[in-house]
Amino acid sequence: MTAAEGRPPWWTPRVGEWEVLLALAATPGSLPAAVATRLAEGRDPSSLLRAHSPDPGAVADRLRALGLRLLVPGDEGWPLSATPPDPPCAWLFVAGPAPPEAAASVAVVGGRRASPLRQAAARSIGAGLARAGWCVVSGGAVGVDAAAHAGALDAGGATVVVLGCGLDVPYPRGNTGLFAKVLASGGSLVSEHPPGSQPRAANFLPRNRLIAALSAAVVVAEAAEDSGSLSTARAAGSRGAGRVLVLPGAPWDPGAAGCNQLIRDGATLVRSLADILEELGATVTGAPPNSTGAWPGLDGPARAVLTALIDGQLVTSGRLAAVTELPPPTLDAALLDLELAGLIRRTTAGVQAISLPTGQAASPRGPPSAGPAAEEHKEVD
Amino acid sequence: MLARLATAALVGLTAHPVGVEVDIGRGLPAVTVVGLGGTAVLEARDRLRAAFGNTGYEWPDRRITVSLPPADLPKQGSGFDLPIAIGLLAAAGWVPPAALTGLWAIGELGLGGDVRAVKGVLPAALAARRSSARLLVVPQANLVEAALVPDLPVAGAASLGQVGEWLAGRADLGRPGPPPDPAFPPVEDLADIRGQHQARRALEIAAAGAHNLLFTGPPGAGKTMLARRLPGLLPPLEQDEALEVTQVFSAAGLLGPDAGLIRVRPFRAPHHAISVAGLVGGGQVPRPGEVSLANHGVLFLDELPEFSRAACEALRQPLEEGEVTVSRAMTSVRFPANFAMVAAANPCPCGHLGDSRFACRCSLYDLHRYASRLSGPLLDRIDLYVQAERLTADELTRAPDAEPTAAVRARVLAARALQRSRQGAENGRLTSADVAVHCQVTKPARRILVTAVDRLGLSARGFHRALRVARTVADLAGSERVEEHHVREALSLRHLPIIGDREAQLV
User: Higher model confidence: residue A174 or residue A246?
Assistant: First the structure.
């Protein structure tokens, strides 16, 4: 018997199947979904090895050093046996405990540039789901992903972060603190990619199918036209078992273009956390969702400003003046009051709402954890 | 025979007296120039020979030695042509040497014998007066500039022939006319800008308290147009300020022919590709940069994030000290750089973030990069953030008539007078310690500041900035106490987060 061309120097027919799989998973440069498809077609794993496939012993040592594990179908804790993704998944690198089965989890997805209002919605939904005992699954990006995880952590829940790069690669850099918190709270980080893999654009669409496969339902908190959130939702929808729950928006809200499209294609419209829990089979009691978008206790000008900001979009103060027809001093006063109340934020590009109307927010954004003295406060401006 | 007169050499902004000694003696025909003359000075030999020939003077074919004491002061430029030529005329016996007593001269010679304008005539004239010169002869085109210095007799020369005739007593030189009309020249008026309520108000506050200002807004929002209105809001230039401004322009060679005193506060808007030397001054022979040309005026930095990091760093010294030091191996010179800074930036690289009419095409990465370029030490020196708006044609026609510059300036002058009598400086220049003394606020005003620290994440620096600005708002209202509504207005003009700034991320 001769070694097939391209097999690594360490390979002999006596190397065990687990070792071959370990080397295969750790081989840099190959798309895991493509390898998994060929394995599912019945190809001999060793024939898929490449000349540069690393020595399985070294891989095992590396994983041990990084505190990671490789899960494969059939392992105890393999989460995808009931909900195999398409294309299939042949292994998962895991940090923390093995993620729960899809039946125990709900994904919350949306874009990185989602408006602060939709991020607040994602955070509130994440918190509500965690409080109801669900595990929250999402990607590791800034924006909606981070907001959903942060919400679940706020409520003391566990979350699963599905990454499109190696679990030891700090990407995105701004979220490394969040990832540490996820692990500290008993959640897990999972990825198909071996340690050291950089976040390539091609990794993210296949990553989305895993988010869908790891959850009983996908809540789309934000989806612009042609966004990645749509691919996650479609992956969940095509699986049949998974449900797609979508937060709608105004037709002119760019962050709702994909959401509204999904609803038109047959996804379920949800207005609130209560709607989501009801879809998940919980009996919901209590007040119906606040559908008027009211912020109680606000006077005329402030209410007019908030109404103009209801989409969560950036609006310049000149445009606000034109829409609300408030005289400049009244508008400036209303803006400062709303800022101090934590309902809006002003940026160099315009004003936007950041807090959900009462009744929508399961966990309103608290005030920044500032010390009382100005001199002690961290420089951020 | 030996002839002696004087001229001046420019070092930075000031001119130093330089003697010109010309000796014609025996020896092989040659011209030697001693005394650290630069290339342009050494080339004077060739210009002089041609100018003499073309004017009709026979070139003395003997050994000519020109000395320019003090010998250790480097001398640059072509202004030495005229004094050396006059010395030669006297040394060769064409004119009586007594005519050269107490005489100063500066000017470049063309090959045809014409006298050409040079830079630095005003500093030279100041040096001549300090040395009690009997007369300063300058190029005819620089005569108005030289005549700016009182108590100094000046004359303008158009050609070498004219100078020779005048020295021989057969003709006269150009004499300065009566001083030009001191009428204040027109400025760009604030009445031209409609709408832009907050931006107009911010300009008023910036002018009243010497606060630096940042405009953000989409392209076409009129950021440059607004900034151009700031010089007109500032008090008129005092006589000595005007002289200093004119001196810088003279040293930079930017005074046009027949230019007199500059009476309008300068407005300088360097392009963002400018080098550090162009911005703060430099060069082998140090020349003033844009910050010095903006002295007593306004420096406008459009597209602030596009300026190089080095350029922004170099702005720190002038912003803190009101002057710049340019050090070279031979010399170290100081240029004044006391200016008001107005910066402008798009909200994002494509400029359309927050614009209701165009979609922003920037990626998150673009926004991060832009935000990190915009942050930095320069922003610490900026007290006011304002959004400039692009108005629709409809909004423009509906906007009420705007207040003219003259009305706003009256308030600015009154507020500045209050500041001078209280603390002797503008509010924008107060240190944190001064702020504690002069910016006492009422109880309700303090309460809202503390809330802002809590809810808006106002930093310690931001806190002091808000106090300084609130002090100016109160001064504009003629109020001795800083009240709550003054602080509120200051807070609406505070530093705002930049979308894409990782620090300002919500989660």
Answer: A246
Closest to A302 measured CA to CA, from A263, A273, A342, A267: A342
CATH number where A342 lies: 1.10.10.10
The pLDDT of residue B259 is 79
Task: Indicate the pLDDT class of residue A293, thresholds 50, 70 and 90.
Answer: low
Q: What is the torsion angle, in degrees rounded to the nearest 10, for the CA atoms of residue B120, residue B125, residue B126 and residue B128?
A: 130
- In tens, the pLDDT along A251-289 reads 988 899 999 999 999 999 999 899 999 999 876 665 554
Chain A 257-316, CB below 8 Å of chain B: which residues?
A: 314-316
> With an 8 Å Cβ cutoff, is A367 touching chain B?
yes
pTM listed for this prediction: 0.85
Give the whole-angstrom CA distance, residue B476 versus residue B465. 17
Beta carbons of A370 and B457 less than 8 Å apart: yes
For residue B343, the chain A residues in CB contact (below 8 A) are none
Is A147 within 8 Å of chain B by CB?
yes
Residues A282 and A191 reside in one and the same domain: yes
Condensed to tens digits (0 to 9), the pLDDT of residues B399-420 reads 888 899 999 999 999 999 999 9
A347/B488 CB distance under 8 A: no
Confidence at residue A381, expressed as pLDDT on a 0 to 100 scale: 35
Residue A316 forms part of a structural domain = yes
Nearest-Cα residue of chain A relative to residue B386: A348
Residue A27 located in a structural domain = no
Task: Give chain A's domain count.
Answer: 2
Do residues A315 and A234 both lie within one domain? no
Phi first, then psi: give them for residue B5, nearest 5 degrees.
-150, -165
Q: How far apart are CA B415 and CA B426, in angstroms?
A: 9
Q: Looking at the structure, do residues A79 and A104 belong to the same domain, yes or no?
A: yes
- Per-residue confidence band for A374, with pLDDT thresholds at 50, 70 and 90: very low
With an 8 Å Cβ cutoff, are A318 and B391 in contact? yes
Same domain for A340 and A195, yes or no, is no
Based on the fold, state whether residues A223 and A333 are members of the same structural domain: no
Inform me whether the pLDDT recorded for B258 exceeds 80: no
CA of A105 vs chain B CAs: smallest distance (Å): 22
- Tell me the C-alpha to C-alpha distance, in Å, between residue B274 and each of A195, B290, B301, B311: 45, 9, 11, 8
CATH architecture of B2-167: 2-Layer Sandwich (3.30)
In a domain, A26, yes or no: no
List the single best residue of A348, A355, A369 to mutate versus B (max B Cβ within 10 A). A348
Q: What is the DSSP string of B233-295?
A: HSPPPPHHHHHHHHHHHHHTT-PPTT-----SPPEE---TT--HHHHH-BTTTTB--HHHHTT
* A116 in contact with chain B, both atoms CB, cutoff 8 A: yes
**Chain A / chain B CB contacts < 8 angstroms:** 141
CATH number of the B190-426 domain: 3.40.50.300
| Domain assignment of residue A242, yes or no | yes
Residue A343 lies in domain: 300-353
Chain A closest-CA separation from residue B395 CA (Å): 8
CA atoms within 13 A on the CB side of B380: 14
* CATH assignment of the domain containing A281: 3.40.50.450
Q: Tell me whether A350 touches chain B (CB under 8 Å).
A: yes
Under the banding of pLDDT at 50, 70 and 90, the label for residue A368 is very low
Domain identity same for A208 and A253: yes
Contact A349 B395 (CB under 8 A): no
Q: In angstroms, what separates the C-alpha of A217 from chain B's closest C-alpha?
A: 23
